[in-house]
Structure prediction request, 259 residues.
Amino acid sequence: MVFSMNHKEFGVETDLSIFKDTMVEMTWLEVEQSSKDGDIILLPIGIVEEHGPHLDLSPDIYMAYHFCKYLKHNLAEKEIGALIAPPFYWGISEGVKQYPGTFSVRPQTMKALLMDIFQSLLSWGFRKVFIVNAHGDQTHVSIINEAAEEMSNSSELEVINLERFDIKLVNPPEFPKPREGRFEPDYHAGANESAAVFTFYPQKGNRELARELKPQGTFDPLGYCGDPASYYLEDTIIECFRADVETDARKIEAYLKKQ
Prediction:
């Protein structure tokens, strides 16, 4: 059955604040107590960049934040305390930085900012950071991994990029199969990403315009890659999201039990 975008489902957001349920809304005393309690840090990473004519500049950072919020709640059910750090959105976008609205920083700038964030967390007593990244630029990802490895190797703060978290699970959550017939490639503001935005943030984006767009196999000329017009056929967005959150929560749980 095709998922109805108007049907209230798990994960639908009405509050557009990316600070809700993060440490930004805590006092310094509460943050201090959290570090003393041994809570872990979830760091959402994305970028502010163009996403075609039908979405605004925010999908990557909203998706990273959204995932962290549900991951935090899932971990709490497993009696694992976690704080969400302020979302980090000064990333690198070599592929679409020519489009207005794409803020792409220099690699050394991004790395320096990440290292300063890690150092702050370390100075407050935190010892484990798990990164949730929602932006796929290769240089961007490389800088995340480089900063995480450098901090982990040179301090008492362990930084783990969940994309590289190789923990084997017994009976892992089952993911829905990819939709057959989807136009490929589809990795930037195409059917899948557009469907995710319209599902979790139904008040964002322009569905009518999306349905008029033709498939593109490259970013040019309209700043998307994929087939946003077929977003309404992506009917497993929530099932994938549930499985993804549960997978990472169980990996973190298994890892912490070994410590």
Summary: Confidence is low (pLDDT under 50) at residues 1-8. The chain has one domain: 23-258.
